[in-house]
Amino acid sequence: MKVATWNVNGIRRRHAEVIDWMTESAPDVVCLQELKASAEQVPEALTALRQYWSTWHGAPNGYSGVSLHLKKSFCTTEPRFTQPEFDFECRVVEARTGSLRWISVYVPNGGKDYTAKLSFLRVMRDYVRALHAAGDQVVLCGDMNVARTEMDVHPSQRDPERVGQRPDERALFEQLIGSGLVDVGRACDPTNERNFTWWPYWRQARARNLGWRLDYVLATENLAAHARSAVVGRTLGTSDHAPVTVDLDVLP
After folding, report:
1. Residue 252: is its pLDDT beyond 60?
2. Per-residue pLDDT reduced to its tens digit, 45-82
3. 201 catalytic per annotation
4. Which of 25, 169, 202, 229 maximizes the CB count within 10 A of its CB?
5. 128 near 140, Cβ under 8 Å?
6. Can 106 be counted among the known catalytic residues?
């Protein structure tokens, strides 16, 4: 099965790109972030994708917003979509299928309120720890707004004082992963120093691959062990982020 995540940076502007990608790639699970739209503002062409159970979690004039889509061919009964208690600014949505939790998340950037970002990471870490302790499997996807290590930032942009690379947020992100999760993208491509998912809009950064790795598929170990590949669609779309697709040789 395919699990994919993409920060689209505005669903109304890029809905045609998303439809084309979902139609051609046909992921079984899709997590989108930074919708910048309420459910009522999502273009009808997207809400009419009948092969998916879908939920859109956003606000009018918002700058965040997330969605989650499960293909009906493997999820035959409509799931219950919910928002965890730590959700704010429409940043988290989840669904449960059996003992498996699917979570789409958009972590705050932290540039305007770094304290809020750290708080969000702490609470999300504790939430995943509780799920793991309860025996739930987890697939957590999204824009984490943290480059996990120096390897996940192009050398020209490495700066330990810059938000997204600071030691305290990296430590919290590592604790989140240590709560029973695996960074599937890195596990599938452990030595690639140019495996980026986000690029600045200036100086042809994307064409030159001067980027950061900010978008992740994190999964519990028993699921991650079946990952066959993790692919970044660097050439896809006009968002400043690229979609990340993980192919799992297993069904939940």
Report:
1. no
2. 999 899 999 999 999 988 899 999 999 998 999 999 99
3. no
4. 169
5. yes
6. yes
